[in-house]
Amino acid sequence: MSEVKQLLKEAKIELSRADYEEAAAISEQVLKLDPENYFAQVFLGKSYSCIENKMKDAVSHYVAATDLLPNNMLAWKGFFILLNSEGVVPSTVSFDDYFNLCGKYAETLIQNELPLVELIHELRVMKKKFPQSHESFYRHMRPGTPMAERLGRHLITPQDALKGLITIINDRELESIAKIVSRERLRLSTNDPDYQIKINALAWEVFNTSELDDLYNQLINILDDDDTRAKYESLWLEYRIRVLKSMPIDLKLNFFFKVKNMVEDMVLVDHGSLLVWSLYFEWHDYEDLDKMDKNLILKFFKKFPTEPLAMILYAWICSSFSKYDISEFDNNDKKNEKTETIRESETETEDDELNELVENEEEDSQTLKEDDILIALNDNISKAQNNALAHRIISQYYIFSKEYEAALPYIKKGISLVSHKIRDLGCQLIHTKREFSLTLATCYTYVDAPQFHNAAMTLFDRILQESPDNTRAKMGKGIIYIERENWQDANKLLKEVINEYPDNLDVLSELGWTKANLGQYDEAIEMLSSALRMITGNDLRTTTFRALTLWRQAKSYIFKEAANVSQGLENIKLAFKILVQLIKVLDTYAPAYSTLGDLYTTYYKDSGRAFKCYYKAFELDAGDHIAANYMTEVYAKSNNWSSAVQIAERLVKAEKAKRVLQTMNWPYRVIGIGNLERQQESDSIEWFQSAIRVDPNDVESWIGLGQAYLGCGRIEASIKVFEKAIELDSSHTYAKYFKSIALSEMGEFTESIPLLKEITGTHPEEETFQVSLATTLVNYAYDLYYEGFLMKSISIVLDSIEVMKFIVSELSCSVQNLWISLSRALKLFVFVESRIDCLPVESLVEIFSSKGLIGTKDVDQIDDVELKTILASSDEDNITIGCQFLILAAKYAIPSENLTEYAATVRSALWCNIGVTELTASLVLKEAKFRDAAIFSFKRSIKYQSNTTEAWIGLGIATMDVNYRVSQHCFIKAVALAPKDIEISFNLAMLALKNNDLEFAEQILMRSQSVAPQDSSPWLGLALILEKNGNTADSCSLFAHSFILSNGRSKMSQLLYAKSTLQKYIGNENDERNIQVVEELTTVINALDQYFKKEPENAFALECALLTLERLHNFKFANNLSEKLTELLESRFEKTQNENELFNFAIIRAQFARIQLGLRNFKSAIENSELSQGILADFSNDRVISAQISNHICLGLSYFFLDDFDETLAHFQELLNISKDSKNLVLLIVKVLYEVGTPDTKLIAMQELTDYVKTQGVDLLTTLTIAAMTILDKKKEDFRTILKELNTMNLSDMILDTYKESPLLIEQVERSLFQDKAVDAGKNTWQRTAFLFPNDYKSWSKLDKRIERRVSSNSACKITAQKMSDIYYSSKNQRNIQRSLFLCPWNEKAVMALKECF
């Protein structure tokens, strides 16, 4: 012992010296000698606390010391100095150990009667310094722990400790669950039916070991504040629900009952949690909604007046379908409670609908009206989407209201909610589930019957398996049999039920009705009477059942009367009496009124009273199809389609009519026809389609659908529909009629017109068919006109006029459409002047004689166009008569003197039509009176309707020559009304161009071109502007482009294109072998040919045609036109005696002479040339000189061909005197002189050429001519000179040698010079030509036939079909020869080459 003491002294000395390692070593020796030495443990704790990395050892020795002598303060003081030093807690000593030590230390201090202030301070510092220590702190401060017993009153209450601990653990668990779910969620498929179960189950990993439930229980038991307890009870309930959701299925049931008991206990103490009350009502699983505790519902409603479930429950007990009697409660108390509810509602919510609802309740003794009940249910069900009881109530309400389709979504939602709650919470909702199954089966019985009857039967069978005594399921099956009209099975089943439950009045009534339909009338009446005697009560459900039974009794008497007619209609009288009694019992029972209507219609023949009964029945029940049918027929017969449509629409929307509408389609058809009457074709389509889906063989619905498609512009679809109607009924006239109309709208006139003719043939007296035929013929004529078939269009118009004549004379019909169609028909005659001689004047006179002019006196005074004036005039030409008839047709369309009874649009259109015809006559006849009449008519049209674009355009055109500003204003106004109309912009541009405002015209046309580049008008206007600016090259291109865009059918483009093309090629020394020129001139003559059909007597067009035909060497056709033109000019000169007409006549005679020369009518050519010369002698201008040159050429050549050489020379001498420097004239004379063939003439010819070259210089044509003459004369001495001249031609001349005549001449010269080497004559020249012009097939003709063929077949190469055919057959290849014949079948050489192949 002494040794231990000595060692302890040494250790103490070493500690005082701060030699902690030595002190620790000495203390260790002490422990070896005395393992339970208190001071050695203390010294070691102190030493190790001062040595680095020995903190754990220090703690362990201090703990050992406190364990040895717990009440000795020495170790405790040192120990807590160590614990409160930096870095010990929590790195070395955990929070739990620290707070355990604190508890022991506090006990030691108390036993030693020492103060706890320092320890409490250190604990507070520790708690503040380390927030993570709170959980451990709260655990040690729980009620019953040593630390809480000794220090709790100084630090924290047990309630707060538990609250804090619950909060920390709850937050940690939620965080852990969130991490687990986020980690595992990606491994699960959302398509998995058990996805939500698996997600919920993930939390069980945390909740399985949770202590929160015990902590909540402990906290609730020690809380003494009611509000706080209620709060934590709510939190505890929410926690338990979360745990319940995560539990395995085998554990859910027991825990659910524990939670359910908790909920019931909380309701029992009137807990303030909304969740508690909601769960209470939902989990109670009421067997019958009428067995709920009414007082508890009212308490719930008072406590939570804005809660949707409370509102729904309260609405149910106030409803007439429930068996609750709300009036039993003390009204005064309830009013006071309601007033408090209102006050709370005003302070807690701004729900105006609730305040209004509560006010209504006050006014009516706290009960809701039936309308308010339905509103309350519908408004609140959307806010109670997760409550199965709410869905059960609203679905039950709709079932009792017989609104089965409205109930169906709520039932399905409720079933889904029940399954989810059973799955997630393990709820026992047996009654709720069965009730939903029954209501679903009931809905399936009536909704879209019999589509879901099998499903309903399956549900009823399933319920009966679970509950064999379920009367509702058995009766439900019976009702399905009744709905299917399977009366035998229904009778059998209901008999079994009534035997088991003889007092069930519902079954008794259904059985009586079944027997009535089986013909057992007396037995049925007895059963129904028995049921009526046993019915007691006056609530709505009982009253409705009594009314139903009375109605069935009345129907049984009616069935009995129908089967066996009684004397004096006794059965009908009894039925009538019962129905009257029924109405007194329940005046809102619709079938009673409908059945009365049947009696009045069938037996009493009183249509007025029948209509009133049906009307009342339909007002009460929009699903009464019999009443709707009767009323609709009445309205349709009186042409009151709006009322008929209203009835049909209500019937279609009625849920009760859904089943019958599966086999009855007339309501859909009526609505479709009503929409057609209102011109709402797009809306009518779906109704006709619905009608056809019900009855695919309903021809009228098919026709209505076709009309709707036609009105919407879906013409192809309408044709298919009409064809289907004709397929169903091949003799249906209107199906054929509308098909013909649709075909004409499609432009299929060749199919439409025969159909119309067939219809008019079978119904000749039907005005509509005849007018449609006439209109369609006119439309067909216009279609042909726009396609370019002008002659055929006139023949069709003639047919249409004959039809109109029949309509007017035979049918005495004079409708507006007829006169408008006649006006359009006559306009075609004006457009196609070449056929104006075919105008059926007699027929037109007969048509117009049928009635007189009405309401056109003002315009008659201007244009003086009336039938009598037309008949009185004898010197008018055909076109004038045609224009007058055209105007007259437009005037006849005016139906009366005063147009006020017609819409402004109609009046404006009629006068605009007159204006258009007057303007057409003005433009054709060039008479001012028609222009003035057009201006008057357009003004009148604008007066009636100022936004008519056509009227403004017409007025602008009519005033172009009258007032520039007015015309401009009209066009600007029209542009404002129709900014995208290119025609308006073009007219405005032409007005500007007419008045030399080229810049403004160009701006307008450029804008129009950007808007509609495919339209030809802007291009034509731009071409005119360029031409006026002198840019003829670009203008010519634009004229051609405009002509192409118009497809060669625009009258204006035809003429201007011809003019520009002739200006481009005439006088430019174009060779007649130029294929491009021939192509364009051919196009020109084709365009003019179409133009002459429209305007055959246009002198300028005839001149253009003559020039074109002359260049194309079509002298025969040109001869006919020239004769027509000369006759025209003669007649015009005779009328006007104008010198210009005489001059033009002389010019045309000169041209006629050239044509006669081409026809080899030399004498006629001489006569016409001399006549032209004689007239031209009195004129002097540039055109006179050109015409005189032409005449001298014609005279010279004619005399030459007539072998009068002296006259030939005389005229040629005149030519040289007029224009000796003209190369073409010199060459012509040279060729003629050389053709004479005498040495002198050849010498003179050569001398003329030589003189020309000396004065004008050498050019390609003269060089080639001299070379050719030299070769023909075989002047070998000059060959080398000619060869040198040809070989040294410059590149520009070689380019001008388009037809490669110089290489050919070189070849001929070389052959003559080098006869020994004639095989390769000209080869070098041809090779050089091919090198310079490789894309010209003529360059390869002497070198390589294969390359020649390939180059000539290139699309860029211009070549005639004959030449291409020659190239192909010359290859001697069968395939190429066949191509040759394909290109040119008349090529005889190709035919011979093909024969040689076989």
UniProtKB/TrEMBL annotation:
Q: Does the keyword Transport apply?
A: no
Keyword annotations for this protein, in alphabetical order, are: Repeat, TPR repeat
Q: Which organism is it from?
A: Naumovozyma castellii (Yeast)
The cellular component terms of Gene Ontology attached to this UniProt record, alphabetical and capped at eight, are: Ski complex
Here the segments flagged for biased composition (Acidic residues) are 347-365
The record ties this protein, via SMART domains, to: TPR
Coiled coil region boundaries: none
**Which segments carry the region annotation Disordered?**
335-366
Q: What is this protein called?
A: Superkiller protein 3
